[in-house]
Amino acid sequence: MISVLEYGVGNIGSILNMIRRSGHECAPVGSPEGVASAERLILPGVGSFDFGMRALADRGLVEPIKEAVLSRGMPLLGVCLGMQMLCEGSDEGTLPGLGFIAGRCRRFQSTPEHPIKVPHMGWSPIRPTRDHPLLADLAPRSRFYFVHSFHAVCADPADRLAAADYGIEFSAMISRGPVMGAQFHPEKSHRFGMTMLSRFAGLSP
Amino acid sequence: MRPRLLPILLLSDGGLVKTVKFQSPRYVGDPINAVRIFNEKEVDEIAFLDIDAHRTGQGPNFALLADIATEAFMPFGYGGGVRTVEQAQRLFGLGVEKVILNSVLADDPDLVTRVANSAGSQSVVASIDCRRSWLGKYSVHVGGGKRSLGRAPAEYAREMERRGAGEIVINSVDRDGTMTGYDIELVGEVASAVGIPVVAAGGAGSLSDVQAAIRAGASAAAAGSLFVFHGRHRAVLINYPNPDELDAIFR
Lengths: 205, 251
Description:
With 205 residues, chain A is an alpha/beta fold.
């Protein structure tokens, strides 16, 4: 069973749709008790960093998430803003993040030498930078759908799981222990994302 | 990053239609069936525009959109009849990725800001329909291309960017359904005016048209007829280029 955190930040409809289609069980959770009893949890999120952190805090979810991850090793997958909130903070806001992964989120910069449109919106391939169960079975020519203006910069390069390019090389996925993050939207990435969510469904503490 | 190529599908009375110059809607099939086929073809993205919802004031057909969202495993945009943040929120809750605003912005341009504040800029698309006068001057039109706002598209697009839109769709009413190619001048003008992604729409008849729009500065290209019709007699056949064809045109 995958629990998907519903906390008023972005839609969880498509995540639930895709997990169900992949043949796994899932349910939305929104309370501290729901988090405390989750086997594995997806932290979705779309919008600004502080908006997301405040929504977690307002619902009393920050401590239960930390408790579940740190004391019982609950697998946690942050998606998009949810991945950025796994870090210590972001240049987009002033509130601290969940702090599971050392580092901050920085904005993409368009420069005269490398002019880019921000946000990075579209499909990009990813390059695994180390072995991980989420990245097993990555099909040839896999591609994932990204929509973001900020990207996570890990203090420890070993926390990067996969890289992608947009003007610069950035972290498409990060992970430390039971905590994982995907900057892209697996739920919007056809069979490539479905495979990854199925892989997450198989992770245990 | 490879440019995006997306079908824009028109909804009318729960069915899919295709227009020519925003007129004479022709029934081309069932939306759910179309989404399933586009899923199999692994399209980059898909957008549905309800061409009646603004005029009738009925708002989005949430039941139909919920069914579409359940089948759409790609980014999914919706436009038509959205007038409030609450309607936008309900759409996001169903799994809609982007809300596309158009005619409503003539009277309530601040809606872009309100939706952007509640869901982020990446979730708000300002769609701009343009006509070209016999003097060659472009002007923004709303209400299904019927009412001119007397505004230049580049300046209007900049205003929408400033208000918080995360993306602009620039559509040529004159080229809609004609399959004679995008209005490249219009696309270039708008793409160079803003720092957010611009989607070219209206007139695509071939993949080389798509190539031309991207060269003109568009981040993505949208098409209707190109993906629902086949051959000289415009038989209905849902189609989309495979990854090799896409790589070839965008190389």
